[in-house]
Amino acid sequence: MTSLFVHPVLAQTGAQIVDFPWAAISPELVLFGVGILALLLDTAGVTPTGRNNRNRLQASFVAGGVILACCGAAYWQNASTSGSNVPLLAGIVAIGAVVQFGLTAWLKDTPRRLGAVISFLGFAAALGVTIWQWQTYAGQLVAVSGGQDAVALVGTDSLLAGMAAVDGVALFTRFSVCLAGMITIPIGFAYMEERQIHRGEYYPLLLFAATGMTLLAAANDLILVFIAVEILSLALYVMAGLAKRDLNSQESAMKYFLLGAFSSALLLYGIALCYGVAGSTNIPEVGRALASLTAPDGLTVVALVMLLVGFAFKTALVPFHFWTPDVYQGAPTPVTGFMAAATKAAAFAAFVRVFVGALAPLQWIWAPVIIGVAVVTMIGGAVLAIVQTDVKRILAYSAVAHAGYVAIGLVSISPLGADGTRNAGRESVGAILLYLLVYTFMSVGSFGVVAFFERRLKKAVTLDDLRGLGRRYPQPAMAMGLFLISLAGIPGTAGFTAKFAIFRAGIDAGQLLLVIVGVVSSVIAAFFYLRIIASMFVEDESTASLAIADPPRSDAAMLGIGLAAVAVVVLGVLPGALVSLAQQAGTFAG
Question: pTM, whole model, 2 decimals?
Answer without folding.
Answer: 0.90
